[in-house]
């Protein structure tokens, strides 16, 4: 059922494909439980930290926690698990549950919890959670934050990032929720700044079914957070998860999909140069204009190195629909014309980028003539030129939803769902 | 009569299940494939939706109306909810509240793509997605995003020509 390499195995096989080396995938989860939506972060010491959703025993449809919610209906009741590797991804620790209240996590492969490493090895996690509004008594989904000060052995009591908001928007939000402050992201700087964003339904109206973007920031490694702040009001696709990265001293990059006239849904980047105090205008990444009145569920993958800011995003207006890469060489003021990342694929989606110096690694899932598989391309010149599309070495079956982070040596670690198991591998180098 | 009621008349009920107008039923990719195969010879409007997809919910009444409008030509509406299969009760409760006569499958696969790949291996996980399927069982057109009833009517007329 599960992939044959167990967590404690320390084998690290290298396969050479076109001169590129991939470590053989290592199982982060043991395959007995339904693991989804992995995320990964890397510490300054090279330690690898992975979180994922645990949806219960394989073959079951667990709905944890539902009995404790007063009978409210929700779309997702899961646990959030954490494991780490201190040997470069050769093995991973036994999983630790991040959420204290069993089954409280509201998460999907397109609405992932986030993890980041801060100053002193502090592990920061944000996740969407089921809750009941103290103002209305109705079911809501909120954004929570926790951190670990002991290397992931235990996580703090959760802090609700968003304020409780009045109003029952059940007939707009649907899915059993009366408000939703989710589809968020979080980025952590090496100095210990934590920036947590979320998409918020509080300003949604029947005429304008869009979400606002909110931020809550900490400048003391997550010990305390400033009050929430509205960044952009009711202009974002409600189901396209935000992305962000802290890039150098006080620069924060935010990726979001803005909805304009005629339902034009554009991937955009906006920049803060003052540690999140203010954000500039949204700049659209390049690509065919995509007009669509629906739920794309498409984030804008980001990476940055100095003034180079990179985006990789699915565009449904392309034929066939697929991923477009675009870069900015001027710190996000403008973006170069987009290129297709995987033109041979029938469809490509779920992008992730990892940058280290001039080296840039891209990962995504795509279909050729079979199930989804995980693919990668790399650039060694800030995205000016790209190497060939390569398929990761992985077991047969469906591989999907990759997420990557750069290692200190310029390689990248990538985690993904293989069926209902989470695998990890290291890419790059010779 | 809504889609699954017609499926009953056509003998395409899922194995071990009985059909009635207005209900939610779980379907694996294999079961869904079987149902589609048994619909061969009829034009089909296949609609992918989710309880959390507001544009989906706006177009469902239009699609139900068009099914009635083109009933003489044998048009069948076949809907599949992309919600988590564990949320069967929520989806059915939702249906009863908003579309009492609506019949829909609910995916019984861990991910959305597995079931949709029966029809469209290159689906990009976007809702709503509607497929117009000809009598030959082949996809005539893929439509993404909410469309007006007039736009759907025009597309269905093209399908039926």
Count of alpha and pi helical runs of chain A: 1
Count of distinct strands of chain A: 30
Using the coordinates shown, work out and report the CATH topology of chain B.
Glutaredoxin
> Alpha-carbon distance between the termini of chain B?
23 Å
**Spatial strand sequence of the major β-sheet of chain B:** 1-4-3-2-5-6
Rg of chain A (C-alpha, Å): 20 Å
Unreliable stretches of chain B (pLDDT < 50, length at least 5) are 1-19
Tell me the β content of chain A: 35-45%
- Principal-axis shape of chain A: globular
CATH superfamily of chain B: Glutaredoxin
Beta content of chain B: 15-25%
On the 0 to 100 scale, the average pLDDT of chain B is 86
Largest sheet of chain B: 6 strands, mixed
**Helix and strand element order of chain B:** HEHEHEHEHEEH
Quick gist of this model?
The complex is a heterodimer of chains A (430) and B (161). By secondary structure, chain A is mainly β.
Describe this structure in words.
The complex is a heterodimer of chains A (about 425) and B (about 160). Chain A is mostly beta strands and about 425 residues long. Helix content of chain A is about 0%, strand content about 45%. In chain A, strands 8, 9, 10, 11, 12, 13, 14 and 15 form an eight-stranded mixed β-sheet that branches. In chain A, strand 16 (about 245) and strand 17 form a beta hairpin. The longest helix of chain A has 4 residues, at about 170-175. The two termini of chain A are about 30 Å apart. Chain B is of the alpha/beta class. Chain B has one domain: Glutaredoxin (3-Layer(aba) Sandwich), CATH 3.40.30.10. Helix content of chain B is about 40%, strand content about 20%. Chain B is built from six helices and six strands. Chain B has helices at about 5-10, 30-40, 55-70, 90-100, 110-115, 150-160, and strands at about 25, 45-50, 75-80, 105, 130-135, 140-145. Chain B has a six-stranded mixed β-sheet. In chain B, helix 3 links the parallel strand 2 and strand 3 (about 75-80). The longest helix of chain B has 16 residues, at about 55-70. Chain B is globular, with a radius of gyration of 14 Å. Classes of the chains: A mainly beta (about 425), B alpha/beta (about 160). Chains A and B meet through loops of A and helix 3 and helix 4 of B.
